[in-house]
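Please study the protein below:
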Amino acid sequence: MASVSDTELARDIRNGEIANIYYFFGKDVAQIEAYTKKLVKKLVPSEAQAMNYQSFDGKNFDLSVFSDSCEVYPMFADRVVVTVNDLNAESLNANDYKFLTQVLSSLPETTTVIFFATGVDLYKNKKSLSDKNEKLRSFCDKNGVSCDFALKSIAETGKIIASRVNKQGCTISRKAAEYLAEKTLRDSVMINNEISKLCAYVNGGEITVETIDLLCTRQLDADVFRLANAILRGQGDLTFKILSELYDMQSDSYAIIGALSLSFADIYRAVCAKSKGLGSADVMRDFKINGARKFAVDNAFRDSSNIPVKKVRKCLEILSLTDIRIKSLRTDDRLILENAAAQMLTA
């Protein structure tokens, strides 16, 4: 069939144009999860899922059980749906891969298989899937549908925000829409929540930057994660702009350095895990990180490509010394933290 965009995928699902195989991957994990749930719900009603829906963990993938599940015919429903979360094709040997493709090639017309990646790194570099994962994606593309849920730019996200706001009978300028996109880190779930809140408040009016600042509480963790990214990317102007914004919000220096250290720790774990072929779910399990911080861990995996591990270690070392200086010296806290930011930018 074809590789499609998320917009085309949504249209096809609405129109009932259903494939036997789907392969969902990309950086926008929230969208991948949302579309997978939407597709499952579309194909198998909740009351029929007990007999017609089977889910598999790709990290503990039993090909034999998977094959049996794919051959089952639906009961009191039109389709059987089988989902496989976080299958890294690099973990399959040649015989396993051949068996998997044979199963997928002989699916009954009433079976739909959905591969979706939310907690595993499938990439060999910033843009390209690893060889085996690309081979599987290409197979799914030829025999079904693949969709790359790429993280959209600030400008693209701003256009989506403007469209959704207009559909709710309100207006928003491009500047305000892009400001909201940046403030929410382009996260789809956060964006939808904020749009609903803002549209209810303006009640058919215009959403301005001032309205966004009034209603959308600045998330210290989100702002500090932007700060960590700016430092690691060597973006000096943006680094000091975000720092200035944090102090304008009356943020405490201890809170900033604590959140910044946590962000760098998340990024460090992500860089190390990816080097071993592990995903965010592995990090959350091994470090006993609860679900409330899933967003932060997913962001770290999404934005840690091509970051040298030595640079992250050096930044953590600088932050540790900065924490001691802030607590022991009488020098202005902001000056100490800005000095640390400058050191990290040149690390």
